[in-house]
Write a structure and sequence with these properties.
InterPro entries: NAD(P)-bd_dom (IPR016040), NAD(P)-bd_dom_sf (IPR036291), NmrA-type_oxidoreductase (IPR052718). With about 280 residues, the chain is α/β, with parallel strands linked by helices. The chain is built from 11 helices and 9 strands. It is about 45% helix and about 15% strand.
Length: about 280
C-alpha cells in the first residue's frame, strides 16, 4: 500500500492520478488535512493533521511506502515532517519518499534549511529513503505570466540568472516512477528541467504566446523590494521574494542534471509550452 500525504495539493493530486494508472486504486491511500477535499480522488482517504502526531500515525498505518510531500507552511515544516517520519518509522514502512529541494544539504537557497532538517530526520529514522530534490516549478510563474500579458512587462532582480524549471506534472511523474519502480532505495535525485532559461527569454516566450510586446526590467534588490511593497506585498514576503531572486542570480536554481528526464523517460515540459498553455487559459 502506498500512502500519499498532502494529497489534495496540486502535486499530490497529480501523483494520485499517476499512481492509479499503474496500480489498483485499493492499493493507494490519500492523506489530507481536510478529507472532504479528497472525495473525488477515487482512492481511500484518511484524515491527518501534521500538528497532531496521533492522526498521522493512524493515516500511515499498514503502509509499505509513504510519499511525504513537503508541507506549505514555511517555518513549521520541520516538526510537521518529523511527525510523518516518526509515524512511518512506527509503521515499519519499507520506503519513505520525500519531495525536497535542490542540493538541500549544502545549498544556500533560502528554502533549503527546512528540507535539510527533514532529510536528516529521515536518515536518522533508519528507514529506506528516496529524496526527490525537486527544482523550480513552471507554475510558480503563473502570476508573472498573467501580469505580463495584462501590462506588457514584469520586474525582478535576477540579472542573468537561469532557472531550470519543469512542470508540476513532470515532478509528479518522477514520484510515481520511484513509488512504483525498483532500485530507488537510499538514493537522491536532483531533479530539474532539461533547459535553464533567463527572464528575458521568459518575456520573449510570453510575448510570442500573447502576440504582443513583453519586456523584463531588472532591478536592484532594494528597488525590487520597494516595488513589491508598493504593490501591496507584506514586508516579509517581499524580502523572501527578493532573496529567491538573489538565489537565482547566484545560479542556485539553474543546474540541469538530466535526472528528471531519465526518471520519467521523456523530455521535460519546456517553459515555452507551459507559457503557451498559461496564456491560452487566461
Amino acid at each position: 500500500m502506498i500512502v500519499v500525504t498532502g494529497a489534495t495539493g496540486h502535486l499530490g493530486r497529480l501523483v494520485i492520478e499517476g499512481l492509479k494508472q499503474k496500480l489498483p486504486a485499493d492499493r493507494i491511500v490519500a492523506v489530507a488535512r481536510t478529507p472532504e477535499k479528497a472525495a473525488g480522488l477515487g482512492v481511500a482517504v484518511r484524515g491527518a493533521d501534521y500538528d497532531e502526531p496521533a492522526t498521522v500515525e493512524a493515516a500511515v498505518e499498514g503502509a509499505d511506502k509513504v510519499l511525504l510531500i513537503s508541507g506549505n507552511e514555511v517555518g513549521k515544516r520541520v516538526p510537521q515532517h518529523r511527525a510523518v517520519v516518526g509515524a512511518a518509522q512506527k509503521a515499519g514502512v519499507k520506503q519513505i519518499v520525500y519531495t525536497s529541494a535542490p542540493k538541500a544539504d549544502t545549498s544556500a537557497l533560502v528554502l533549503a534549511p527546512e528540507h535539510k532538517a527533514t532529510e536528516e530526520a529521515i536518515r536518522e529514522s533508519g528507514l529506506p529513503f528516496t529524496f526527490l530534490r525537486n527544482g523550480w516549478y513552471h507554475e510558480n510563474y503563473g502570476q508573472t505570466v498573467r501580469q505580463a500579458v495584462e501590462t506588457g512587462s514584469f520586474v525582478g532582480s535576477v540579472g542573468e540568472g537561469r532557472v531550470s524549471s519543469a512542470s508540476r506534472a513532470d515532478y509528479a511523474a518522477a514520484a510515481v516512477a520511484v513509488l512504483t519502480g525498483e532500485g530507488h532505495e537510499n538514493k537522491i535525485y536532483e531533479l530539474s528541467g532539461d533547459v535553464a532559461w533567463t527572464r528575458p527569454e521568459l518575456a520573449a516566450a510570453i510575448a510570442a504566446a500573447a502576440g504582443k510586446p513583453v519586456t523584463y526590467q531588472d532591478l536592484t534588490p532594494e528597488q525590487h523590494r520597494a516595488a513589491l511593497v508598493e504593490a501591496g506585498l507584506p514586508e516579509g514576503t517581499a524580502q523572501f521574494v527578493v532573496a529567491l531572486d538573489g538565489n537565482t542570480k547566484d545560479g542556485l536554481l539553474g543546474e540541469t542534471s538530466g535526472e528528471l528526464r531519465a526518471l520519467i523517460g521523456r523530455p521535460t515540459t519546456s517553459i515555452t509550452d507551459y507559457v503557451t498553455r498559461a496564456v491560452e487559459a487566461l
